[in-house]
Amino acid sequence: MTHARVPDTLWFTRCPVPTATGVAADRGWLAGEFAADGIAVRSLQDAEPGADRATHFTHALPGLFREGGNVPALWARSRGERTRLIGLTWIEERQAVLVAPGSPVRGAAALRGLRLAVPRHSVPIDFWRAMALRGFEGVLASAGYGLADAVLVDVPADGHEGQWAAELDALRRGEVDAVYVKGALAVEAARRAGAEVAVELDELPDPAHRVNNGTPRPLTVHQDLLDEHPDLVARFLAVLLRAADWAAGEPDEVARILGAETGAGAEGVAGAYRPGTHRTLHPDLSETRLDLLARQEEALRAHGFLAGAVDVRAWADPEPLRRARLLAAADSSATSATSTGAPEPHAGRPRSGSRNRAVREPTP
After folding, report:
1. Orientation angle between helical segments 20-27 and 251-262, nearest 10 degrees
2. What is the spatial distance between Cα 198 and Cα 206, in angstroms, rounded to a whole number?
3. How is 193-206 classified by DSSP, letter by letter?
4. pLDDT tens-digit profile of 173-208?
5. How far is CA 328 from the centre of its chain?
6. Are 17 and 217 in contact (CB under 8 A)?
């Protein structure tokens, strides 16, 4: 029997949002897990040499783990990339519809008939456009309307610096009536623009109206790595479970990590993430989350973002997470049995710096 050669390097990538991957990278636990095997673990953003940063979107690198937005993940799968879905998180990351200062528009129903900003970027997968469409779609649906009940205004976004800059400029010039934004940097951008909140999507009671690029957020791996080294995949996931467990008891540290991951200040982080976010980093493949991702797939396909249909349940493989949970439970039991009050393993490892940061170019 021929065994596949153990890879020299495992790669990971994540978006600048709350992720167990980001926490594990900050703690140095991913590198520590595989050091004895002679396997380097590197952030895709440390891409010189050995990897193409574009694979954050295409997932064409066989040794890559990705925890990020579902639009690129579904797009890559729809184009035939051999990825597998091995986990999903649901983290409420502030989504809002903004209007100009002094606008009387408030509430989902008030968007009917308004001019809604829909950005357009010259990129292979325009997830920014997808997010705006899905954000407005969810808000309007919560009031019994659809996108056809509003006026969609294309906003060319190439050449603008900063997230949401093109849409907020269009709002300032009076070319649109409302803009969709999300995340920590959006909180800061809205403050700078003086924009006012018309709708807080996080307050919509039905989670189906909050489905977007990051809700739910997939964790994917290449089929080749899973086929050839399922043990490595399970161990990687077990580290993420450990990181999520640790994060659940460290809200201040998670806030610090989020500041580094998002590039936002304390105000942006506090405004974007609800209290308790540090307890929501555990991935699963629950029926509820799979159903919500299937809704997202259907909507993205209807809007023309996908090359073909993606059967979400066929894409999902629960076995790696099952094995990871067993490993994590065994590790926890062993740690409890031998605990002597010694420092936490790997606690002295250097924290992530510029070589280990989340993607900084526009990412989901």
Report:
1. 100
2. 18
3. HT-EEEEEGGG-S-
4. 999 999 999 987 777 888 888 999 999 999 999 999
5. 23
6. yes
Q: Which band of pLDDT confidence, cut at 50, 70 and 90, is reported for residue 86?
A: very high
d(CA 160, CA 164): 9
| Pure H helices in the chain | 20-27, 29-34, 55-58, 70-78, 127-142, 165-172, 184-193, 223-228, 230-247, 251-262, 266-272, 287-302, 312-315, 319-338
Above pLDDT 70, what percent of the chain? 87
DSSP 212: B
Question: Which residues have C-beta within 8 Å of that of residue 338, sequence separation ≥ 6?
Answer: none
Q: Which of 362, 359, 363 is nearest to 44 (CA)?
A: 359
The rounded distance, in Å, linking the Cα atoms of 163 and 185 is: 7
- State the Cα–Cα distance between residues 74 and 309, nearest whole angstrom: 9
Residue 317 CA to residue 266 CA, distance in Å, equals 37
Structure tokens at 307: 């090359």
Task: Output the CA angle 260-328-29, nearest 5 degrees.
Answer: 35
Token match 């609800």: residue?
A: 274
CB-based contact 128:96 (threshold 8 Å): no
CA 42 remoteness from chain centre? 19
Enter the pTM of the model.
Answer: 0.89
pLDDT in tens, 261-303: 777 677 777 766 777 888 999 999 999 999 999 999 999 999 9
- What is the spatial distance between Cα 184 and Cα 186, in angstroms, rounded to a whole number? 5
Bridge partners of 74, per DSSP, are none
Residue whose C-alpha is closest to residue 157's, from 179, 182, 188: 179
| CA–CA separation, 39 and 153 (whole Å) | 49
